[in-house]
Design a protein that fits this description.
It is built from 8 helices and 5 strands. By secondary structure, it is α+β, with helices and mostly antiparallel strands. The protein has a 5-stranded mixed beta sheet with strand order 1-2-3-4-5, sandwiched between helices. The chain is globular, with a radius of gyration of 21 Å. It starts with 6 loop residues before the first helix and ends with a helix.
Amino acid sequence: MQRFICKEEVISSLKRHRQVTPEYIRKIERIPRQVLENVGTDLAKEAAALSREVDSDLHAHKAFLRLSISPHGIIYARLDKMKHRNEKPLLKFYSERFPIYTVLFGSKRGVFGAKNGTTLILEKGTLEESLNKLEASLPLDPLLTGIENQNHEELWERFAKSQLIKGAQTSSQMKSLARKWKNTVAKKDSKNQSLEKYLN
């Protein structure tokens, strides 16, 4: 996520916003760099806010997306909650982190696939159709045989726990994220309790 505003990054993010038009992008491109980067006008403020929406959407998917694993060396997920056109940067992110596997995502905008940062698939249709086609063209991966019967959530939890270092302090970012999550859950629970009073 952006901390400092950079004109090129704002424009790059705006191009992926679901509601931003090419005409709006041209308006932002005409704003002088110093004005945009210091949010010196209402239009600059709006552009910075819209670009943060896109970056937050991408960051949330990088942090919380849960992938399923195919024994044919494919990791895949549905992007049902993705608001903006962030499929390609997310695909690049995961395919570079899992270079020996093919990464496949399905969203309302189509199916996106890549391996080791190189895009392989950009097509309309469903994730299931593309997954079946891809599995038919790839051999079984001996490292993944039998994995289809395991609980993927459990596998990801074990992976996450393996990243923790005993004795190391939790980062301030992780503490902040934990507090936000706890507050969100607490608010939801209190709303549910207040609703239950009226329903009973």
